[in-house]
Design brief:
Protein name: DUF4255 domain-containing protein
Structural class: alpha+beta
Pfam families: Pvc16_N
CATH class: Alpha Beta
Order of helices and strands: HHEHEEEEHEHEE
Largest sheet: 5 strands, mixed
Helix content: 10-25%
Number of helices: 5
Shape: elongated
Distance between the termini: 50 Å
Number of domains: 1
Number of strands: 8
CATH topology: STM4215-like
InterPro entries: Pvc16_N
């Protein structure tokens, strides 16, 4: 499920970022292709990822208690039975997004990349159906997205220190997905007569 979410976000950015940022370079004057990475933005990031890059680091996954639903769904079947299914669990997946230019001191390009990513993410409050990958294609509920919401990290400074990285400009991005917790559904007979 999380792997499919990563692929979905990569597909969204590949489709929506300006073509001059994502097209591969054919000559000296064209900018190089921007890699989309889900690696930890630590001190090893620049040696493990082809630059320039956009980093989407999944730093927090938690149930969205505000969207919790405890009501089972019941569907009548044509054979006189009904199926009973537990509701999906809504889960918030939070990403810390960073931009990594070829030259670490090129703040202008870093901010350009981050700004373009921000425009794409702000454009969609729900992830478009056309970019959904794998198991997310069958989601019964839309994937709701929150861009520029306050980070769930207590301190960005402590975060950067803990992973051994240097502080960078970041965007916080949260996507709410639905996870089906029932692998099977329960089949029940329908009550058709009432005895008094």
């Amino acid at each position: 499920m999380l792997k499919d979410l990563d692929k979905t976000l990569a597909e969204l950015l590949k489709r929506e970022l300006p073509s001059d940022l994502i097209s591969s370079s054919n000559g000296q004057d064209e900018p190089p292709q921007v890699e989309i990475s889900f690696a930890t933005p630590d001190s090893q990031f620049v040696s493990n990822v082809k630059l320039p890059a956009i980093g989407l680091f999944l730093y927090d996954v938690r149930e969205n208690l505000g969207l919790r639903n405890n009501e089972w769904s019941v569907e009548k079947q044509s054979n006189g039975t009904a199926t009973k299914k537990r509701p999906s669990v809504r889960v918030d997946c939070s990403y810390l997004i960073t931009a990594w230019p070829l030259n670490p001191s090129d703040i202008e390009t870093e901010h350009l990349l981050l700004g373009e990513v921000m425009k794409v993410l702000l454009r969609y409050r729900k992830i478009p159906q056309a970019v959904l990958q794998g198991s997310l294609k069958n989601q019964e509920l839309p994937l709701v997205a929150f861009t520029l919401r306050p980070s769930l990290l207590n301190s960005l400074g402590e975060f950067w220190q803990a992973i051994g990285g240097k502080p960078k400009a970041t965007l916080n991005y949260t996507v709410t997905i639905a996870i089906s917790v029932d692998e099977s559904v329960e089949s029940l007979p329908l009550v058709v007569n009432k005895a008094i």
